[in-house]
């Protein structure tokens, strides 16, 4: 993945990452709040998530380190191995979730259009096309990705018009409970699922600030569009089935292309970053080959393990990576600890702070706040880091 990337290519890359079935379905989860409160939760959650993504992406742009490599700054070499492994596992999970979602949606379309019913075939085809994406490499795939994302942008407009062309009257009573804080947290948690990836791509930007800004802007716009469409589809159309909405819009066979490439442009980043995380542990296999291996395993999981519920998966990711990056961001931007100390194998004090942050997230999750869980936990973790690490340094200087 050599070569610098322009701000426009970064915008395209991250807009494509955001346009996915998973984002739309997550937006549908907050429908019990209604449209007005749901929109407020989407905007607040995306502002919080976008800010955190920008800070993490800035580290990659400035240091030219991948996300996994950058964790060495705060946790040492062995500490970064632990987080690389955790990242590979969560990315493998996301790969399977995305392939399953894409295959199920494509299957609905082909059943209605051609009477063809075979999710396994679609899962294998999606995996095969992702492998082609990986094989092209970031430099070559950016052109193909740009075309696909342009078409996906048209898709979001058509889908939005289809959803909101209905009279804005709820189709029925919404079941389920959802607090405002929980809705905000769902938005933040979705953004945080990209937190361990963003530096993998911003480290290649031509211009540090603008490259990182347009990366986050691409995700911000694409994700908000999908969340709003998911919310509207649940409230005013009575379905979150993207295939049904596309078919009702008269798109027919075009729906196949739309769903297929929406899945590929999102999942491609997951598998490629899994390869980059593997490289942080060992260089015996290239990031491309490692990414291809993760993609194959993702297809196997998609075929044999029907993962459909991922709300708790999002919270699990948040609990692991929110305190992790709170420590890294604190040390990088406040303590100005911007380089790797090769002599540090593991930073036990930061590992302990991270564990406390994970426990704190899980304990605070049922309680929540109007700003969700991630932001309060990251602030608290950052303060603990300052007190235990920065405070210790000040004590040593004075005494």
From TrEMBL:
State what protein this is by name: Hydroxymethylpyrimidine transporter CytX
Q: Single GO cellular component annotation? A: plasma membrane
This protein's source sits in the domain of life called: Bacteria
Compartments where located:
Membrane
A Pfam family annotated for this UniProt entry: Transp_cyt_pur
Q: Give the family from UniProt.
A: Belongs to the purine-cytosine permease (2.A.39) family.
- PANTHER family cross-referenced by the UniProt entry: CYTOSINE PERMEASE, CYTOSINE TRANSPORTER CODB
Please give, as recorded in its UniProt entry, the membrane topology of this protein: Multi-pass membrane protein
Q: Where is the signal peptide?
A: none
> Which sequence ranges are marked TM in the entry?
12-33, 39-61, 81-100, 120-136, 143-166, 178-199, 211-236, 242-269, 290-307, 313-333, 345-364, 370-390
Identify the species of origin: Peribacillus psychrosaccharolyticus
Q: Which GO terms describe its molecular function?
A: cytosine transmembrane transporter activity
InterPro entries, A to Z: CodB, Pur-cyt_permease, Thia_CytX
Keyword line: Membrane, Transmembrane, Transmembrane helix
């Amino acid at each position: 993945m050599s070569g610098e990337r322009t701000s426009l290519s970064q915008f395209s890359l991250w807009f494509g990452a955001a346009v996915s079935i998973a984002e739309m379905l997550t937006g549908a989860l907050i429908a019990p709040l209604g449209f007005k409160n749901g929109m407020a939760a989407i905007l607040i959650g995306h502002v919080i998530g976008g800010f955190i993504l920008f800070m993490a992406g800035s580290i990659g742009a400035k240091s030219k380190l991948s996300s996994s490599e950058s964790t060495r700054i705060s946790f040492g070499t062995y500490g970064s191995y632990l987080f690389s492994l955790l990242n590979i596992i969560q990315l493998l999970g996301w790969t399977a979730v995305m392939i399953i979602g894409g295959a199920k949606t494509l299957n609905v379309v082909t059943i209605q259009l051609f009477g063809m019913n075979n999710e396994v075939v679609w899962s294998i085809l999606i995996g095969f096309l992702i492998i082609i994406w990986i094989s092209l490499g970031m430099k070559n795939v950016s052109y193909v990705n740009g075309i696909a994302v342009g078409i996906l942008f048209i898709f979001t407009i058509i889908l939005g018009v289809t959803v909101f062309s209905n009279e804005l009257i709820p189709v029925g009573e919404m079941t389920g409970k959802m607090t405002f804080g929980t809705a905000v947290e769902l938005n933040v948690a979705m953004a945080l699922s990209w937190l361990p990836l963003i530096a993998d791509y911003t480290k290649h930007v031509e211009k540090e600030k603008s490259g990182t800004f347009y990366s986050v802007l691409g995700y911000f716009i694409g994700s908000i569009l999908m969340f709003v469409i998911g919310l509207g589809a649940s409230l005013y159309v009575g379905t979150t089935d993207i295939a049904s909405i596309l078919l009702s819009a008269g798109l027919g066979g075009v729906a196949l292309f739309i769903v297929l490439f929406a899945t590929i442009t999102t999942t491609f980043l997951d598998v490629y970053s899994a390869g980059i995380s593997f490289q942080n542990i060992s260089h015996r296999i290239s990031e491309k080959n490692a990414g291809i291996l993760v993609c194959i395993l993702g297809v196997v999981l998609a075929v044999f393990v029907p993962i459909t519920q991922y709300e708790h998966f999002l919270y699990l990711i948040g609990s692991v990576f929110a305190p992790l990056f709170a420590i890294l961001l604190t040390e990088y931007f406040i303590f100005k600890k911007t380089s790797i100390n090769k002599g540090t194998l593991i930073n036990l004090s930061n590992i302990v702070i991270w564990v406390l942050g994970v426990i704190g997230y899980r304990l605070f999750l049922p309680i929540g706040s109007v700003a969700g869980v991630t932001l309060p936990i990251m602030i608290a973790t950052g303060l603990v880091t300052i007190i235990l690490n920065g405070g210790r340094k000040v004590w040593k200087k004075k005494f």
